[in-house]
Amino acid sequence: MAAAEHENHARAVRPRSYHQNNTKYSFFDTIGDFQKTGVLQDVVLEVEGRQFPCHRLVLSARSPYFRAMFTSDMAESRQKTVVLQDMDADVFEEILSYIYSGTLHVSLDKVQPLYQAADLLQLDYVRDTCSSYMAMNVDCSNCVDMYQFADFFSIDKVQNRSLHFICRFFSEVSHTEEFYSLSANQLTEIISNDNLDVKEETTVWEAVVRWVQHSREDRLHHLPSILPHIRFNLLTSDDTAAILEHPLVRENPGSSELGNLVGRPGTSSVKRRVGMDTQEMVLLFSKIGTDVGTTEMLCLNPKSKQYIKYSYTLRTVPTATVTSNNDIYILVDESDKQTLFRYIHLENVWEKKSSVDWDIPKHSSLDPEFTEYLVEVDCHLYYLAVHVTFVKRRKRIVVVMKEYQCSTGLWQDCSKVTPMPTNDEHYFNVAVSCGKHLYLITSTEMHRYDPSQDSWCERTPPQNIPYPCTAVAMGTEIFCMDATLRKMAVYDVEADSWNEIPGWCDPDQVPRQNPKLFVYEGQLHVFVEFFSPSRRFFEGSQNIYVYDRSAGAWGDLQVNLPDGLWWMRDSVLPVARMYAYPAGQDNHTRD
Q: Long-range contacts of range 562-566, CB-CB < 8 Å, 24 or more positions apart?
């Protein structure tokens, strides 16, 4: 009997597999300690005369380049000291730190040499991280340099982003030394782009002239291949004649052929450049009187103080966003659902895309503790609804999130944030996208959503923003402002750290509604409505201010908005490139 019982017990106990969750971190800690203490090191890598003792096994496990070096018949596999050429010692030190710790530190001054080193050493993670960092930090000051670097290494997303900035600020960047260093093929690609933000085609021709004259002897022979990309059909006859009489054309060995090329109809594109018909504008929405079926859209240029108003048969627009492709999406409140619309620029109409019941309590949309957002994250469109509920008699914040599938026109559920407890009498939050992530900021917590993993994680919350109500991203920074205007802080997404910066300085001005941050032409702006004693109680004085970061102060742009309650429940104002349509045009929506 005892033997039988023992046999039955043995059958009942089955083998199991166990996984140590922190294996990866303990491994990095161990090999990091080996590296710091110099234990078991068996090879020395020499870069620019500096020596780095290392472990062949660790290098081979982390880098295909080193794996091939140390496991083949190459001479380096037998050498105690291996010299690495064409690499910066400081950059290699950072690469080595990543290999042993799994942590990578990236900055603008190091990102390009880091990418080059990662490309040589076949470190895919470092390469991908650097390319994402560059794409996030392109601006008008570095776009040409980034474009050339991305072109050389075939980094499409950086090259496309850089080209976008070159086109957007063409008039400025075409006067820089970096622009003059472009190759003929790079120059041709740029001036062939429909999205050049130029008012006149002569601006393109003048940029070509400066580029050629910068190194005349070496570049004059490229002119016949460049000229066909000047859109002579968009020039006046006088401008064309002036080009034909220009010394660069007359003195060119093939001047007669150039003259025929310029004068021949159909030899250049007739499509107008985007800057000839559009301009960057801030979008605001308003109801017209008591007509609940009509909405006005105000397109405002804060710099020139010009605006255009359009009327549409739409209900209330609670939230809107402009994507990286300049697509404008809005959510419109309807009786029992919300409807997503997309703006068709060339037709000036709103196209209905999707109608959805969000499965959120309908009364919540009127609750001050209910907020909703429509944001783009890494080329995907997301909807967030943040509302207060009670879980086991405790006040908690619940986030509902859905992703819009442009190809199917359907919405799908995303992972939810774990309900967050709150004791705040008035709950404030703001959502903002930056790079490949979405951030939800409250006064006490900060959560980051990663679309590639469909998961949330906690980040460092702001310390001195008691009522966060508006935030906007610029590069790898997120600017967040308090509802009272008194507090403002900037978050570094790479360092996961906050720094408080000067906020509003006039204690006598009290905002009537939550301020709205936005980025216009690369500068931080805010739209504010103050209480105005000269107006009725339900009206305020609406103003736009621009932030001077070096001075830590706001400047009044003195923009006089047309009459109306221009506002949105959204936390940030959308900015888009807009065509200027004639006033009084019949604007409408379509299914």
A: 562/298, 562/307, 562/309, 564/286, 564/288, 564/296, 564/298, 565/286, 565/287, 565/538, 565/539, 566/284, 566/285, 566/286, 566/298, 566/542
3-state helix, strand, coil in the chain (%, to 5): 30, 30, 40
Q: What residue ranges of the chain are covered by domains with CATH 3.30.710.10?
A: 24-136
CATH fold group of domain 275-590: Neuraminidase (2.120.10)
Q: Pick from 487, 491, 490, 384: which is nearest to 429 by CA?
A: 384
Weakly modelled stretches of the chain, pLDDT under 70? 1-14, 16-39, 75-78, 253-269, 287-293, 335-336, 357-369, 390-395, 407, 418-426, 505-508, 531-540, 568-569, 580-591
Instruction: Identify whether the C-beta of residue 455 lies closer than 8 Å to the C-beta of residue 425.
Output: no
User: Quick one: tokens of 116?
Assistant: 């080059």
Three state DSSP letters for 62-99: HCHHHHHHHHCCCHHHCCCEEECCCCCHHHHHHHHHHH
- Number of Cβ within 10 Å of residue 504's Cβ equals 21
CB of 540 within 8 A of CB of 525?
no
- Architecture of the domain delimited by 24-136: 2-Layer Sandwich (3.30)
Decide: 88 and 48 in contact? Cβ < 8 Å.
yes
Beta-bridge mates of residue 473? 478
- pLDDT of 254 reads 63
Pinpoint the residues of the chain covered by CATH 2.120.10.80. Answer: 275-590
As given in the structure block, the two tokens for residue 544 are 């736009």
For 143-274, CATH gives 1.25.40.420
Pairing mode of beta strands 588-590, 349-356: parallel
Which strands sit side by side in the sheet containing 575-579, from one edge to the other?
A: 306-312, 291-301, 278-288, 575-579
